[in-house]
From TrEMBL:
Residues 12-67 form the HTH lacI-type domain. It comes from the Bacteria. It comes from Nocardioides hwasunensis. SMART domains: HTH_LACI. This is LacI family DNA-binding transcriptional regulator. One of its GO terms (molecular function) is DNA binding. Gene3D superfamilies: 3.40.50.2300, lambda repressor-like DNA-binding domains. It holds the Pfam family Peripla_BP_3. Keywords: DNA-binding, Transcription, Transcription regulation.
Length: 329
């Protein structure tokens, strides 16, 4: 090439680069992609022309769209604030994002609006705890968008990633029964697959467990329900909660009323998340957040490639902390 390359008045394209370098459009494309061998001299000429024109390379989004891909996986988490407040959501989403990032895909956090699901997404992960219907579901199925559902509901056409809620709840209930507890109460999540399975596991051991109430995994909401329950005389010696945040609230409220945990009241949770606002370690059912996130992202990747993916149910582990003890005699 001789003399400076005249800058085009519009945004430069690959065709401009090819013309400036004196090569075909396909050769210029190969020089950028590296998919097939191009001589170093030719590649150098193309990159030099691109630099002179201010061309930074092919648009990856346009390339993906030509291939029927957007390079983005959506994850529906309900109100977006939930994704940043719920300690059980963060480690799972972190694992999902790491797997997708390693494969060159982005992750889009979505609310429960059906409009979000109409975006050009390669797959959608559904993780709206407590909500068992979603207006976007029929549209996603009709468009053939791969769908991975975390902890229910088990919709037709979706891959289901779950944990063994029932066994975990039964194990913590058995632990309390072995400590001599016979009258227990339970604070549950809102109506959902995890709520039903965790309550069913508890009632395998304590069929007459008293239900305190239902609420989201929120410290204030759980403390209000516990306050109302403890305001009345009760012979309950243990409270089994469906989240560690709920369990922390029960401990806080019990202490506020002068009760000692676990001497006066044993408290157990579920999830295995950090509770730094407590000065004791909770007895809880630990779920494998990172493994669940990796299984979810991996299922999405396989579904994107058109592969069949089996449902996954991951095991949980009982962790005995300082919040449960033997019934006082």
């Amino acid at each position: 090439m001789s003399g400076p390359i005249r800058q085009p008045s519009r945004t430069p394209t690959l065709a401009d680069v090819a013309a400036a370098a004196g090569v075909s459009l396909s050769t210029a494309s190969l020089a950028f992609s590296g998919n097939k061998p191009v001589s170093e001299a030719t590649r150098g000429r193309v990159l030099s022309a691109a630099g002179s024109l201010g061309y930074t390379g092919p648009n990856p989004l346009a390339r993906n769209l030509r291939q029927g891909r957007s390079g983005v996986v959506g994850i529906a988490v309900g109100p977006l604030s939930t994704a940043f407040r719920d300690p059980a959501a963060l480690p799972m989403m972190d694992a999902v994002s790491q797997v997708l990032e390693d494969e060159g895909l982005g992750l889009l956090l979505m609310g429960d609006s059906a409009e979000h699901a109409r975006l050009p997404l390669d797959a959608v992960i559904y993780q709206i705890c407590g909500q068992e219907t979603w207006a976007a579901y029929d549209d996603l199925v009709a468009r053939g968008v791969p769908l991975v559902v975390v902890e229910g509901p088990a919709w037709p056409g979706a891959t289901f990633i779950d944990i063994d809620h029932r066994r975990g709840a039964a194990e913590v209930a058995t632990h309390l029964h072995d400590l001599g507890h016979r009258r227990v109460a339970t604070l549950t999540l809102q109506e959902s697959h995890p709520q039903r399975e965790r309550e069913a596991g508890l009632r395998e051991v304590f069929p007459d467990a008293v239900r305190i109430g239902r609420c989201v995994s929120d410290l204030t909401a759980a403390q209000e329900l516990t306050s109302a329950f403890l305001s009345e005389p009760t012979d309950v010696t243990a409270v089994v909660c469906q989240s560690d945040v709920q369990a922390a609230a029960v401990v806080i409220e019990a202490r506020r009323r002068g009760l000692t945990v676990p001497d006066d009241l044993s408290v157990a949770g579920f999830d295995g998340v950090p509770t730094p606002w407590l000065d004791l370690e909770l007895t809880t059912v630990v779920q494998p957040f990172a493994e669940k996130g990796r299984a979810t992202a991996t299922a999405a990747l396989h579904r994107i490639e058109g592969e069949a993916v089996d449902d996954v149910v991951l095991p949980v582990t009982l962790h005995v902390g300082a919040s449960t003890g033997r019934v006082s005699t």
